[in-house]
Amino acid sequence: MAEIEREKEKRDKFMTTIKDTGLIQDEPLIFEQGGEGRKGYSLPRWDVEEVEVNHFISSHVLRKELEGFPQLSEVDVVRHFTRLSQWNYGVDSGLYPLGSCTMKYNPKVNEEIARMSGFSNIHPYAPEDLSQGILRLMYELQSFLAEITGMDDVTLQPAAGAQGELAGMMMVRACLQARGEKRKKVLVPDTAHGTNCSTSTIASYQMVEIKSNEKGIISLEKVAELMDEEVAAIMVTNPNTLGLFEEHLSKIAEIVHRQGGFVYCDGANLNALMGIVKLGDLGVDVVHINLHKTFSTPHGGGGPGAGPVAIKKELAPYLPIPVVEKRGEIYRLNDDRPQSIGKMKAFYGNFGVLIRAYAYILSMGAEGLKRVSGMAVLNANYLMKRLKDHYYLPYDRPCMHECVFTDRFQERYHVSTLDIAKRLIDYGFHPPTIYFPLVVKGALMMEPTETESKESIDRFIETMIEIAKEAEENPDLLRQAPQRVKVRRLDEVLAARKPKLKWTAPSPFPSP
Amino acid sequence: MKFPEGLFYTESHEWVKDEGSQVTIGLTDYAQSQLKDIVYVDIPEVGSEFKKGDSIGVVESVKTVADIYSPITGKVTDENFTLKDHPQFVNEDPYGKGWLVKMEIQDREELKGLLSSKAYQGSLPEEL
Amino acid sequence: MRDFIRYLPHTEEDIRKMLDAIGVKKLEDLFQIIPNEYRLSNPLNLPEPFSETDLLRHFQGLQVPIMSSFLGAGAHYHFIPAVVSSLVSRSEFYTAYTPYQPEISQGTLQAIFEYQTLMCQLTGMEVSNASLYDGASSLAEAVLMANRITRRKKVLLSLGIHPEYRRVIQTYIDPDQQEIVLIPYQKDEGRTDEKILFDLLKEDVSAVVIQNPNFFGVIEDLHPIAERIHNCGGLMIVGFSEAIAYGILQPPGAMGADIVAGEGQSLGIPVSYGGPYLGIFTTRERFVRNMPGRLVGETIDLDGKRGFVLTLATREQHIRRERATSNICTNEGLCALMATVFLSCLGKEGLKELTMMNLSKTEYAKKVISRIRGCKLNFTAPTFNEFVLRIEGKPEEVLEKLKKEKILGGFSLAKFYPELDHHLLVTVTEMNKKEEIDRWANTLERALNG
Predict the structure, then answer these.
(1) Burial class (CB in 10 A: 0-12, 13-18, 19+), A206
(2) Which of these, A158, A230, B67, C383, could form a disulfide with A163 (CB 3.0-4.6 Å)?
(3) Measured between CA atoms, how close is C39 to chain A, in angstroms?
(4) C313 CB near a chain B CB, below 8 Å?
(5) What domains lie within chain C, and their CATH numbers?
(6) Residues of chain C neighbouring B40 (CB-CB closer than 8 A)
(7) The model scores a pTM over 0.80
(8) A262: DSSP letter
(9) What does the pLDDT look like over B66-110, one tens digit per residue?
């Protein structure tokens, strides 16, 4: 009886939360719906006898109950997650101008390929002689990435850019140790992404910050001043996070190399350079590549990605194992590499992601990739030129694939970068990156990518101009934004002061 | 913004109240206004020892983390336990309920190197 | 123009108008900043672009044949309901970015909140993050976290932990800062050798790391270990590579674990030649500020409506920079979503039934091969869905004969455990039909006995 009452209470509570929400429907948690006896699965047929558990496993290690687990029908599950998806905004929904994220279109044929069972159903320990197709794919992808970046060798193992950075810096450290050197410092520009700093710490280096000059790039003099035999490496991003090409990079590399250090490049912004210049030619020794950025693999709402690392041959002995090699016509996995740094993760890398990047490169070819970079840079410069009269441009110089504005013009109306970003949502756009890079106060970093048409960018430009006008004439529209959304601005202070990180069953006892 | 006379201040935005053999330490009104809503305070245990200039803990808002630096050399004798459930005291009453730690001071000469209320205010950005 | 143009909308007219607006004559002018001597004069050396049809044909040719499989060892063949791939293919999920703008990411955020809850329930712990890269790197992060908490140098790793996971831990650890001591397994039972472990449990130990079920499929007894390590002020870290085991086994949280870090691939994620997988990471509430990875929390909006946001971001690299708990930026968002949908479909009863089927099929396989000459069960302790066989014959030759019959009959342990050079790790799941198991056993018998 109590069970039925509890069910009714749950249903009533849910019904009262249904308002006239239109198509942005309310949807409770999976734990707040369903019920005893609902079933959403169909397992393979029982063709052996079900054993008596206690005969095989002693009861003190057996689980008593799966507390709180949901019980839903297939229809419940599909409705639930379909509704959830409709509250999201993806690249397929519209322009997604996040700086340094390269939110380009994800080709659908690549999805079809990744799902083929001769790839998705293959075990990593399947015999190598059977897995030649897969190993060949990985080997060829390695050579493509090496060619694009102008490097000698590649590891596909790291699961993300940050993991790639760590692998890269570990290889540098291993190489220096093999030389008998114990260098302690890494030079990192103030425009660097946070992962560059945290990676250096995890790789046991002390970070030394280089302030960028008035042109927004690293100055040669500063590097010469700071470079010594205690410095293991300089970590650069090119183009940097202001969207500017580090024009002194080759000379910076010379200074660093002369004193025995390495040049690490964060390859997040590779989308600006393909077929135009090779990072290896500029003196870079090790670079990580974000396949989920430059090479069109989906962002997945926060992963999975892949962060292969391309190196110059001096670092080859230290590559993570196993290494994918070709001997004659046979492809194999080789882990007989005594100087390897070890492994970043189990098995060989995020193969499901690698296969999409490989398909992308095959679809584009040299001509396509060069056009990608050309159009990416064109779009960003067009955007920059048309907005600079409406938003403050801290570095008024030609940009590469992204540009950075600030809210300085809007400050006088007491409107901030955050307000501008939130107002864009009301107009149907995902905001650009905000408050990064840190060297610029109130940054709005925009990267349109090459897959946006002129109309798409024009619409965005017109919207931004309209918002600038609103900031002056009716700033409350910005401060109250967003309005046309599932939830309005959320209380992040409450979320941090009283963290509630999971659902808990409501107490059976009535509240006082 | 308030900067009570009778307290010492540091360039890293701590205030120090001289209580004879021990001092009370907290964050200034300027510091809390810059950090905005404080969500968490990490202060050292009683008995921990620090040198002048050491980082003794951090104070967190939603989007920032800031170090708390020891203005003197000494040992922690008391910590403000109420901040665990009420980190907002640092915002609401930075010189009163929002105090962080009390420390036993080893060398009273060190107090001479700290700033007065006027000197501290003078060091802050002009917009104020 | 080539077909790749379908991804590049600009017409020549568009380009001309845009160049005019910018104020340059040609596209090359936008790249003037790049020094001439480095500008590439030749195209990249890459294959000619493929049309969509040729692309599909090319991949069809690369596909690897699928065989009857008894392979596990960290990657498990399990049933994936059609609902999982259908829902995860919704582009609002997979083409979305990290949910930094919560107002337009409530789908991703609520799904991760549900994921975090399910992981706590599955592992019996108090708080979960939004996922890490895989089981191995998750376990390595757990070791680093224990070091931050205890500030001690020594870590005890059971040899029952997946060898690749151990290698990853060794890669992440700085030998100047932490020391790893390996604990052997008990030769008869196959469990971690408690006696040796207990002798080493002193006040200099940061954590003991055990995998349950371990690499040999053997079920470990964690209670006594937890008690001892806690008495010396250290932490117990429990890893796993077969997540569904906790549908039937006591979760690590109930056995005294402080941090649980393992692999979630079994929860609706295809084996996919080793990745992408799912790093599950759960811990006690009092350690939450030391935990790496993203966290989603519940809150309310301006109208008092429930909503979800990324929270406690101050642990992460984009704020704490060089003092971050980890350098992790991405998680495995889509894989976490697959696990959430999978567990939503299976629910309480489904997970129980799935684990019973795995156990029953494995015990059936053990029964069938017990009648075969030339092979026997190597360890005496209870197992879940994996076990080790000792065979009379060279594993490579035996496996080769099975392969000719299109059966991947097991995993030779000699590669990772030189002392186990006549041993195969065999994995049986709900995906192995009874006839398949019979055929495997018969073929194995022929391979062993000529």
Answers:
(1) middle
(2) A158
(3) 5
(4) yes
(5) 3-62 (no CATH), 68-76+348-449 (3.90.1150.10), 82-342 (3.40.640.10)
(6) 289, 314
(7) yes
(8) E
(9) 889 999 999 999 999 999 999 999 999 999 999 999 999 988 899
